[in-house]
Amino acid sequence: MRLAFERAILLITSLFFAWTSLTSLRFPRQFAQPLGFTIGGLDGLNEIRAQYGGFFLAAALVNAMSLFGVLPRQAGFVVNGAIFGGLIAGRMASLAIDGGINGYGGAIRALFFIDAVGFALTMAAFFWECVSGRAS
Q: How many domains does the chain have?
């Protein structure tokens, strides 16, 4: 049961990261717009492709390699914990600084949920992996 949960987390996060990478690489303007970004030129396109496309491609690959046993599963969980943990920490700081969620668009509101759930599920899978002693 635990192994199925751990693999499911790696599969879901790998697909999510791959989708994020693909859409930001192929359609950087459309990707950026719901996030509140306005792309002003090639520099902006490059930055969306690098920060989202390249970064999330690397995360997807680490997750896939962890899922298929090329890397230990814990490597995928550490990458996911750093990504989702950093994102939700930044979002919570922004929430405090901005005085609440009012004014945030639908995409950002959804990302609060996605990042919090991603972090919680990743941490659960990571600790189950550590406690079970089956790290591979």
A: 1
